[in-house]
Amino acid sequence: MVLNSDKGWPYTWKNEGQDTCDCYVNCEVDRAWQIVKVDLTEWFSSHCGTQFTPRRHVLIGTPGIGKSMAAGSYLLYQLLQYDAERLQMIAYVVGDELSLFDKNTKIVTKYDEGTRITTIVKGRSRRGAKGYIIYDIAMEGCNPPAGLPPNEWGMIVVTTPNEGNFSGWEEQSGSLRIVMNCPEKEDVKAMCVCMKRNEPTVQAGYMKEVEGRMDKVGPVIRYIFDKRPYIGWFDTCRSIVDKMTMPDTKYYSVLGTNKMCEGNYVSDKLVKVVRVRGNEGSELPYNALISSHLAELTLCKLAKLMVPNDFILLILAIKDDLISKALEKHSLFAFLIAAFVNAIILKLKELKMEKNKDDPPHLCALRVHPHERPFKPCLLPLLKDSEGKMDVEYRVLYKPEAQNFPLVEGFFFWTQIRRRWLDCR
After folding, report:
1. What does the pLDDT look like over 230-286, one tens digit per residue?
2. Distances (CA, A) of 285 to 59, 170, 261
3. Which whole number is the average pLDDT over 116-131?
4. Ranges of each domain in the chain
5. On the CB side of 319, how many CA atoms lie within 13 Å of its CA?
6. Which CATH entry fits the domain spanning 2-179: 1.10.3470, 3.90.75, 3.40.50, 1.10.287?
7. CA atoms within 13 A on the CB side of 57
8. HEC readout, 200-245
9. Per-residue pLDDT tens for 285-296?
């Protein structure tokens, strides 16, 4: 579903470069509203009495997936449609700017930076108004004011997975977490169709182009729909991987855990959060690498920098729901570990074609030269991303990025080769 506002949304009022008037609603966005709606229904039901306080929530999601523009705007829309006799005021806060919607007078009052948001909202509460606050964390590391929300007001905080943004307020308010998953490919395709609804002849090509960007940088809708932002973001992500040093590897210990990135610039651009169930129906943000392409680049770099045993433990932690999937994708890196190679040497068997099954066996390079195992990994790019030929090195484990690479998951040259070029074609 697409909601359109000729005057834009509070998020776009604060961020002048964001000039879109469309709010795209997928199942994750609607899910956040349904949770809030249940609370409102319970709040205003007769059996709860007058002392019932609406629950507070923290909406957590990967940066750039539409928490503010989509979820925040859709929550505002639904709250404005809610019964005005029961819910008279809606406050939308972005950073330190407040937009106050009075549903009875149908007037929006905008307060500039520096305004005492708590004072204004509490003043309306003292006059008997009930309302709801959407608080969008626009500045990393800044908790909402301790005085929010006032009595008989509900509130939801919209934030990235950085506990420094909300931990103090969360503890004080006893809020519940809502974890928002990234958009699926079908969601992104639907957005492409809508964006090009007046240009049906270019829809298919545009959709394919956006899908390719999504494969590279993940479902970060802030960057994948336009070429210039995408290139800038992709270069930023590649630069983070290329410049990674040994001390930086500690920031990737969050992978495969529920621990948040804490706003760390090194890892938060490469990691997404996925909703998993905790105890008693709670929601936890599980950390995974944001795209297959950046996952390969990141893991190749980590394999070079980390102690082998620590790296293997990291791979096992990235279980992606099923441990077999992680082992299938990343077990190739085990060939970088001497103990693993030594353990399997005697168990290696040659695969022969049926017509050659009676031929004498070939020598196994690892068995003849056990100390010539690969010592570092290298990702072999897709043909469309390569320049045709590339320098090759011996004792380097080449891992093709292509999922349909012929026969092998990876390969290496165990001795120096005369021709130093590998033709990717």
Report:
1. 999 999 999 999 999 999 998 888 888 888 876 666 677 899 999 998 888 899 999
2. 11, 15, 10
3. 91
4. 2-179, 226-334, 336-423
5. 8
6. 3.40.50
7. 25
8. HHHHHHHHHHHHHHHHHHCCCHHHHCCHHHHHHHHHHHHHHHHCCC
9. 999 899 988 988
